[in-house]
């Protein structure tokens, strides 16, 4: 009896999570894969015909948006590293007893809905808004200067939205550095710069890699920032998918595009992880 | 050369693949397509037979489509005892259809007994999928007595089999006269390089396509795919010239208010309401090439739990007094022509600013268009088949999605 219990326990433990995955991941994925190969329309229904042209056609129409999304995602990640590293460094090494408070402050904006915060940026950055209007009337900026609608506005929004996801993993990596290692470097006459370059930065790299994983993927598939801060020149693939699903009821092409995006991101993430040593990155990402 | 025989492994793999194919084919979206142009003569009796009043009703409407204090609904509850739960949950037609389609398809209630849907692409989808309850006109005496007769001849719902209008509106051009001093009269002003980066267009493909067609000198209601392509080229030219700032949904009102756009495609009532509520002085014009007229319609989902209460409210809003107060607030085209005289009576009884405002609404050609206006207004593009609709979207969607 006991033996039965013992052998069953692990399965029972995995059951809730497993069911969850099956219900909310596997089933929708298979449905979407199926939809992406169907033909038809919303009124008469869609029929599975193995219509792989949904992929080629939608990709031919919207490859610009797909590439643009990946570029925005990559630029966002790079800007984030530059911004987040000093912040994480400062909290980890100079935060003292208030470290938890500083981390809390970084997370604080998350208490307000992401969409609401993006709408607020839209109000701040608008052409005659509180930021640009005074500068324009003072003659510092030309009258037709605008921020909204440009690629920089969208990338700005993405950077703003995902900043904590870069700060936290870098902070965790820095926090785990044994101070004695740094001391040792100094004892060996390394300058602060050299000890940073040769000791601290390499030890923090797994955090940076994890940060890139956690920001590149959501930034590339984001559509809220582009929708609210961008224009028709900054459309990202998420917007195309959204429009095809919700406005056009063109479920097959929307599913095909979703699957393509997922495949590209998966391939990208795996080759990235492979190049850097999967185990390390995944371990850091998991902590 | 030896040809490799189909090995056991390959056979398994193929078997697996086809099994996978069958599995994939099993998960899809089922349609409900049945031609609705000629509904069965007993459909009305069949639907309404045995249905009784329940004393409550859920109403799904667009935002800014009723006085927030809901005076008409309060009156309705007083008179009939029916409680109304009113939600402003409809923001765009496409997403609304996408949201309720699965429930309607499965024959389940969507939680609303009355909804207001525009005569857009989605109206056809609702109608052709059999999602709308056929109306029992014997329950609509006020509608028969007071509605403008022209509505019965609408192309999207001839004879008002499934819907009666809530309000209509005109799509034209709005502009900020403090930024644009030249007179704005024609669609060409939306293509004017002088306003580069300050022009707003609609994201809705019907609205956008219509203006492209009108600008190219084509009639939307009689257009075909060749015409659409001409219109798309015209719109592409406007976009590539950097003239369009963005393609907007309802947010264009905000963009106009914040100086993001100076001149934009616009809905008549919005500009009226914005001027009244924010003290702005934006102008609305029907372009010389013509504007478009659309109608938002009240319809009962076929799975509604309280259809009798819903149809009673529909008729109640066609009572002369109720239609008048509604139009006084929303400032869209009123489907009841008699409301104009009634509104003047209200004005005569009022004084000061109220009087002035009521008179301006009653005399506005945007609320009570005359023959001269109607002549310049065009109807939406019509689709006979789902394929046509898909073609239309494939032609215009890439313009919005750059």
What is the overall pLDDT average of chain B?
A: 89
Number of domains of chain B: 2
Termini distance of chain A?
37 Å
Give me the oligomer status.
heterodimer
Helix content of chain A: over 70%
**SS-based class of chain A:** mainly alpha
SS element count, helices of chain B: 16
Q: What spatial order of strands do you see in the largest sheet of chain A?
A: 1-2
Roughly how many Å is the radius of gyration of chain A? 24 Å
In angstroms, what is the radius of gyration of chain B? 24 Å
Q: Residue ranges of chain B: pLDDT <50 for 5 or more in a row? A: 1-17
What coarse outline of chain B follows from CA principal-axis ratios? globular
Q: How many helical elements of chain A?
A: 12
CATH 4th-level superfamily of the largest domain in chain B: Periplasmic binding protein-like II
By CATH, the topology of the largest domain in chain B is D-Maltodextrin-Binding Protein, domain 2
CATH structural class of the largest domain in chain B: Alpha Beta
Named at the architecture level, the CATH assignment of the largest domain in chain B is: 3-Layer(aba) Sandwich
The run of helices and strands of chain B is: HHEHEHEHHEEHHEHEHEEHHHHHEH
Tell me the structural class of chain B: alpha/beta
First CA to last CA of chain B: what distance?
A: 52 Å
Portion of residues within helices of chain B: 40-55%
